[in-house]
Amino acid sequence: MGKFGMLDIDEKNQVKSFLEKPDGDGNWINAGFFVCEPEVFNYIPDGDDTCVFEKSPLEQIAAAEKMFAYKHRGFWKPMDILRDNLELNGLWNSGNAPWKVWK
Fold first, then answer.
1. pTM for the model
2. What is the pLDDT of residues 36-61, one digit of tens each?
3. Quick one: pLDDT at residue 27?
4. How many CB atoms lie within 10 A of CB 85?
5. Cα Rg for the chain, rounded, in angstroms?
6. Which of 12, 39, 71, 84 has its CA 20 to 30 A from that of 91?
7. Cross-strand pairs, 15
8. Can you spell out the DSSP letters for the chain?
């Protein structure tokens, strides 16, 4: 199983498909930030505490051509595990943190 949700994005930044954590890596990943219209609740079954937002709801929204993406081309790295934490803190402590854009 992959580590991130994968997006197929067209030239207008419209998400053509969304797959949560497929096997292998895709070109663009879902980093987990969403801005939603209230209509999003139409895709979440009432009273279903087992519904996983990144599965059926997002897949249906993408299939309905109602999802768009922002393609961040700068530095990005998750901090999910200790190894990530050590690497990112090492970059910060060495003065080589690519995300630090202020003086």
1. 0.60
2. 999 999 999 999 999 988 888 988 99
3. 62
4. 11
5. 17
6. 71
7. 9
8. --SSEEEEE-TT-BEEEEESS-SS--SEEE-S-----GGGGGGS-TT-TT--TTTHHHHHHHHTT--B-----S------SHHHHHHHHHHHHTT--TT----
Instruction: Detail the DSSP E strand segments found in 1-103.
Output: 5-9, 15-19, 28-30
Residue 41: other Cβ atoms inside 10 A? 10
User: In terms of residues, how long is the chain?
Assistant: 103
Asked if 35 contacts 59 with a C-beta cutoff of 8 angstroms, the reply is: no
Q: Which residues contact 75 (CB under 8 A, 6 or more apart)?
A: 98, 99
The number of angstroms, rounded, from the C-alpha of 94 to the middle of its chain's C-alpha atoms is 28
pLDDT value of position 70: 87
Question: How far is Cα of residue 18 from the mean position of the Cα atoms in its chain?
Answer: 10
34: Cα separation from own chain's centroid:
8
Copy the structure tokens of residue 71: 């393609």
Give first-to-last CA distance, the chain, whole Å.
40
What tokens were used for 100? 């630090």
